[in-house]
Amino acid sequence: MKTQKIGFIGGGNMATSLISGLIAAGHEPSSIWVSDINSEQLKSLAERLKVNVTASNETAVSEADVVVLAVKPQIMRDVAKQIAPAIQQRKPLVVSIAAGIGERSLSAWLGPDIAIVRCMPNTPALVLTGATALHANDKVGAEQRSMAENILRAVGIALWVKDEKELDAVTAVSGSGPAYYFLLMESMEKAAAELGLTEETARLLVLQTALGAAKIALESSETPELLRKRVTSPGGTTQRAIETFQQGGFEALVSKALHAARDRSVEMSNQPEFN
Ligand SMILES: NC(=O)C1=CN([C@@H]2O[C@H](COP(=O)(O)OP(=O)(O)OC[C@H]3O[C@@H](n4cnc5c(N)ncnc54)[C@H](OP(=O)(O)O)[C@@H]3O)[C@@H](O)[C@H]2O)C=CC1
Ligand SMILES: O=C(O)[C@@H]1CCC=N1
Where, in this chain's numbering, is NADPH bound (predicted)? Predict the structure, then answer.
């Protein structure tokens, strides 16, 4: 990958996932800058990942061709306004990973004529298995599109959506999605223990089964529905379990949860502090 200087504003969970992924994919740690208010976090990033760290957000901007905004949505306005002069001076590509913060707000805070890519990654970026959707504003040129795409592709799959509004659905599906699978793993582990398995056995079986199911679903040309039916022998154990899920309203519950997450994303983007 062509070495771009990347400045991360905020070095928390998601930034750490992205930086670890970028380095594992061959990106030079010396071309990455991270700023954060948390000095412990910076120390740990410098020690573990050998990236450049600074307490000054402006310094991270002034070193970068691409600035990744990776602070919590609640403080994005203050941070964006703080770095706006440095952004206006350098005019880097700005990539925001914040949930619920629209390009219109970012553009208003950062000032005119800034190329902004808004994206929604997820934490499996840490293990190079991330899923990210991106959307570009009309200031982003072809080269900048591929710069943004290259950063996110380094840590998993990256795809563009046509309409920025689609990012609310993406947040509900893949942004929050890892947590849904972890919840299922937690529940299966607890149930396995109730059935008499040791904690260690339960965990290993649950995790390997999740990995196997994901792998077979990715590698097969068949739909998850068909793959499920292949496991389900008529009158057998799987059928009994699936019927139990269905009688409990599983599909409707999943749909309700994803709608709730999507609605929360829309609600967040309409909050006064996000605009
Ligand atoms: N977690 C996830 O699965 C996903 C998160 N996102 C988005 O990623 C963004 C970051 O989330 P996440 O990494 O989980 O959050 P974290 O809280 O882990 O990371 C944010 C970091 O920014 C630091 N920070 C706070 N104020 C400032 C400031 N003024 N200047 C610089 N740094 C500051 C925080 O320090 P301190 O802790 O001391 O406040 C923290 O280290 C959010 O906008 C979220 O919506 C997107 C996709 C998935
Ligand atoms: O829970 C959240 O709001 C963020 C966005 C997607 C994952 N975490």
Answer: 57
